[in-house]
Design a protein that fits this description.
Layout: H1 8-15, E1 30-33, H2 44-53, E2 56-61, E3 64-68
Antiparallel strand pairs: 1-2, 2-3
Length: 69
């Protein structure tokens, strides 16, 4: 439902679980993207399409590099 959609910025804040930075000892997994996920079209449908196609540069799970693009 479009009226319940989160903006990319709102989704990012929600995914941080109160952590403002990434540092040694931080919990969680990290995905590094090849582009700025906040620089997407304002229209939620277009933003979804852009985010789905955004290339992933690297994925870190439990402190280990699990994907490098």
């Amino acid at each position: 439902m479009p009226h319940q959609a989160l903006t990319p910025a709102e989704a990012l804040v929600a995914s941080l679980d109160g952590q403002g930075t990434i540092a040694p000892g931080s919990r969680g997994d990290v995905v590094l993207l090849d582009a700025d996920p906040l620089a997407v079209p304002a229209d939620s449908r277009e933003a979804c399409d852009v985010l789905r196609e955004m290339p992933v540069a690297a994925t870190i799970v439990a402190g280990r590099l699990t994907h490098a693009g």
